[in-house]
């Protein structure tokens, strides 16, 4: 009888692991997010993204390299891991980009805060398909180089930024 008076999560699914398929489509960015449902409406998450890949030859390489980590919280109006959600994340990213139309290479470190919103569609007892989008604002310390391999710096500096950060089409496993 005492057990029925104490709120618990004996049958609830508290953990999830997910990967964003849209990030994978961004030149092969590997990513993983782990989350813990701490109550009916709140979950805590931590995620990593990694892209070491370079496409093309040395002079015309296409790159979107990054190492990124974030921690945050997600609010679920209905129930954790189902329906609409909104989240906020603290984020750090080390990056290097080379566009296909220009040999200019930009690399640096970004620090900031991301806001995201979306919907989790329950595919079954243990799988969700998440859709969403996000924005990211913060501070960017960067350097610009003449080409990906020459090492001739053309500019450097620091600036605030505001940008679209996430397109989310993620597959989640809940356990």
List the helices and strands and how they pair.
Layout: H1 2-5, E1 15-20, H2 21-25, E2 30-37, E3 42-51, E4 54-55, E5 62-75, E6 83-98, E7 105-122, E8 127-145, E9 153-174
Antiparallel strand pairs: 1-2, 1-9, 2-3, 3-5, 4-5, 5-6, 6-7, 7-8, 8-9
Molecular structure report:
It is a single chain. This protein is mostly beta strands. The chain is 5% helix and 66% strand. It has helices at residues 2-5, 21-25, and strands at 15-20, 30-37, 42-51, 54-55, 62-75, 83-98, 105-122, 127-145, 153-174. The protein has an eight-stranded antiparallel barrel with strand order 1-2-3-5-6-7-8-9. It is elongated and about 55 Å long. The two termini are 27 Å apart.
Short description:
This protein is mainly beta. The protein has helices at residues 2-5, 21-25; strands at residues 15-20, 30-37, 42-51, 54-55, 62-75, 83-98, 105-122, 127-145, 153-174.
Mean pLDDT: 90
Distance between the amino and carboxyl termini = 27 Å
Oligomeric state of this protein: single chain
Strand content: over 45%
Low-confidence blocks of residues: 1-11
User: Which sequence of SSEs, written as H and E, runs from N to C?
Assistant: HEHEEEEEEEE
For the sheet with most strands, the description reads: 8 strands, antiparallel, barrel
Number of strands: 9
Helix content: under 10%
State the helix count. 2
Biggest sheet strand line-up:
1-2-3-5-6-7-8-9
Please identify the structural class as seen in this structure. Answer: mainly beta
Radius of gyration: 19 Å
Overall geometry? elongated
């Amino acid at each position: 009888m005492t057990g029925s008076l104490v709120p618990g999560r004996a049958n609830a699914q508290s953990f999830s692991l997910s990967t964003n398929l849209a990030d994978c489509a961004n030149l092969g960015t590997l990513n993983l997010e782990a989350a813990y449902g701490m109550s009916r409406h709140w979950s805590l998450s931590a995620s990593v993204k990694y892209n070491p890949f370079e496409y093309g030859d040395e002079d015309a390489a296409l790159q979107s390299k990054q190492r990124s980590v974030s921690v945050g919280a997600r609010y679920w109006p209905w129930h954790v891991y189902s329906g609409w959600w909104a989240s906020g994340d603290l984020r750090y990213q080390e990056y290097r980009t080379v566009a296909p139309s220009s040999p200019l290479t930009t690399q640096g470190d970004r620090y900031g805060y991301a806001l995201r919103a979306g919907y989790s569609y329950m595919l079954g007892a243990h799988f969700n398909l998440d859709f969403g989008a996000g924005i990211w604002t913060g501070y960017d310390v960067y350097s610009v180089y003449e080409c990906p391999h020459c090492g001739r710096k053309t500019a450097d500096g620091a600036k605030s930024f505001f940008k679209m950060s996430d397109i989310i089409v993620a597959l989640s496993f809940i356990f």
